[in-house]
Amino acid sequence: MAYMMDAEIEKATEQGAEDQGDDDVSRLVDQCTALRINEVEISDVISLHCILEGKSVNAHKRMLAQCSPVFATLFNAEMNKSIVAITDVRYEVLVEMIRFIYARKVRYDDALLVELATAAHTYGVNGLKIMCEERLIKILNVDNVIGCAQLADRLRMVKLKKKSIEFIVKNARDVGTKPECELLPREVLIEVLRSLVNQE
Description:
- The chain folds into two domains: 43-138, Potassium Channel Kv1.1, Chain A; 140-199, Serine Threonine Protein Phosphatase 5, Tetratricopeptide repeat (Alpha Horseshoe), CATH 1.25.40.
- Helix content is 58%, strand content 10%.
- The chain has eleven helices and four strands.
- Helix 2 (23-35) packs parallel to helix 5 and helix 5 crosses helix 6.
- The longest helix is centred in the last third of the chain and has 14 residues, at 186-199.
């Protein structure tokens, strides 16, 4: 989750300014400021400091708040702060979430999808969550379908959950031999069993 940083952490972050941001995302932020998109101002720029890796990336409060109710609530509570600590998202994932907020696209790395979907869910960036869900559906296979079903159940991804159940039913012989089957959420397991019974 995010929280406003105190002055001591803020000072430490300023000393590590050379680590700020992915180049492409930094350019997007700079261009947005230069063009005054959505009436953003230079004073509207905030630094998101990833505690997990000690790196920061800049973004505009207004842009973040428009796409994320979590950020909106945070900024309303602490309007004068210029640094936010992010404690639950890795830097690489944070950069891609910001890229989506500014450009409505991400650099697809399937290895990041679960983390990216989780971050989108946590911060309420619904468009990104949907994009991740659609990509996960496209890459469903015998090895990842159980994990996808768990993720869909946890993040309330209705479409992914439905497709995962259909995939498990269709490939029951292969998926059923996986030890991870025991980890399937109860509701998913019931749906799978019901579908298998209806096939008989």
